[in-house]
Amino acid sequence: MALRRAGTLPVQVRRGLTARFGKAKATVLAPAGMSGDANTDSVVLLLQAGGRRVVFTGDSTGAGEAAAGASLARGPPVDVLKVSHHGSRFSTTRRFVAATRPRVAVISVGANSYGHPSSDTVRRLRAGGARVFSTQKNGSVTLTITSGGALRWRFARSSAPLVRGVSR
After folding, report:
1. pTM listed for this prediction
2. Which residue segment(s) compose the domain that 93 sits in?
């Protein structure tokens, strides 16, 4: 309702939809269908800009994450991965990390009682070669991709990568 009052028309998206924003292109990788599980049905987007690949995973788990991983495995490594479900131990599986081969992973997470981000998830990402950052440690993380493809990072607090998650 609030979106309509603001003049925005919500659109239901499905796997394969592509939208262009100037020279940038966003492709919906998941969900392929609706399972009824809010996490599995999260929208996963691949943003391509300046020759870079950035993946936004929402809270994707299970079949949604597997479908996105299968699509991403056919291409070059992902430059930046926004880690799914706040770094939950139930997402960002070893298979997904192997398929995406992220160079940098960003976990959006704050203080919580769930143990996010999971040490297992952080270990999987690091073992896959990713530098891992989190909003909990680094504050707001801002990424700018120049038209030439350079990545410019800004951190509100620290630029030190995350070494381990919360043990649970």
Report:
1. 0.92
2. 19-155
